[in-house]
Amino acid sequence: MPHLVLTLGLLSLAAAPLPGQAQGAPDFRIGYRVSAERQAPLRVAFEASAPAGYVVQWVFGDGTQATGLRAEHVYYRPGTYQLQATLVDAGGRVVSRAEAQLPVGSAGAERPALTVLQPTPGEVRLSAEGSVLYTPARPTLMLSGREVGTGATRLPSGTHAAVVRATTSDGRTVEKRLNVTVAPWTGSAAFDAEVLRLTNQARAQGYNCATHRTGGGALPPLKLDPTLTVAAQAQSAGMALYGYFDHTSAFDGSTPMRRVLAAGLSPQSVAENIAAGQQSPAEVVQGWLKSPGHCRNIMGDFNRIGLSYVNRAGTTYGRYWTQVFARM
């Protein structure tokens, strides 16, 4: 469900190894990935390494189980859970077992959140990403009085009511409302392609963010990712439509990671560069390279990128640029 995709933190991946306990057993180690906040509802990605022919049985500590070298599980409620992973051979014999306590914190009072993506002019996608709900019940998304899913809805120019409605763990109905603006704006595939080329050129030339010179160790090129581009376009369009300039949206409160998750990707790490007013790809990339924080993102440990240039006449800056970086 969209509001439960909290697998990874905003900037980095947290991992915790758990060694197998049995003496003389085959090599057996497990680990898990979880958001830095460790707050419910919390999605945890478990992974085990074991010899061929063995299987792992997971007991998550909340009455549910799974089998396989990899498993994902959602802890809906705060608490401390006793995790158990058991290594079983081809004959069904238990040969090793690992155990650990997994604390899941509270994110506070249950509340819905609405993340609005507008990746093309006239197109709106809604997500309940960012909600805090201690229950697996699926929220309802409404647009212009009609229930919609998380896919794209085409709308005419104007103001449209968006609503997310959810049931809390104690049976209350809660909702969040926003007025979505649909208005013309233009993008440029050519500008986006040139930003990508210049970004990868800086990586290939080993650009040094401190000395502003090339010649350092080359980095592999970033691969353009269409899902990250949806998140980038939502940010550029959001700034153009709602009049803010910030990584956190003044319209729906979404952050870079929240927009990426709402678009449908769950990366290990995410970073975002934004700019406004620059007239060309060369100008915007040079500006980012001369800024230490933006340069570190361009030269960072990422392997995918999403890009968006948006032009909307009559706005504060007119032209808005976004790069979204991710490590998968």
Automatic annotation (TrEMBL):
<dbReference type="Pfam" id="PF00188">
    <property type="entry name" value="CAP"/>
</dbReference>
<dbReference type="InterPro" id="IPR035986">
    <property type="entry name" value="PKD_dom_sf"/>
</dbReference>
<dbReference type="InterPro" id="IPR035940">
    <property type="entry name" value="CAP_sf"/>
</dbReference>
<dbReference type="InterPro" id="IPR022409">
    <property type="entry name" value="PKD/Chitinase_dom"/>
</dbReference>
<feature type="domain" description="PKD">
    <location>
        <begin position="47"/>
        <end position="96"/>
    </location>
</feature>
<dbReference type="Pfam" id="PF18911">
    <property type="entry name" value="PKD_4"/>
</dbReference>
<keyword id="KW-0732">Signal</keyword>
<dbReference type="InterPro" id="IPR000601">
    <property type="entry name" value="PKD_dom"/>
</dbReference>
<feature type="signal peptide">
    <location>
        <begin position="1"/>
        <end position="22"/>
    </location>
</feature>
<protein>
    <submittedName>
        <fullName>Alkaline phosphatase</fullName>
    </submittedName>
</protein>
<dbReference type="InterPro" id="IPR014044">
    <property type="entry name" value="CAP_dom"/>
</dbReference>
<dbReference type="InterPro" id="IPR013783">
    <property type="entry name" value="Ig-like_fold"/>
</dbReference>
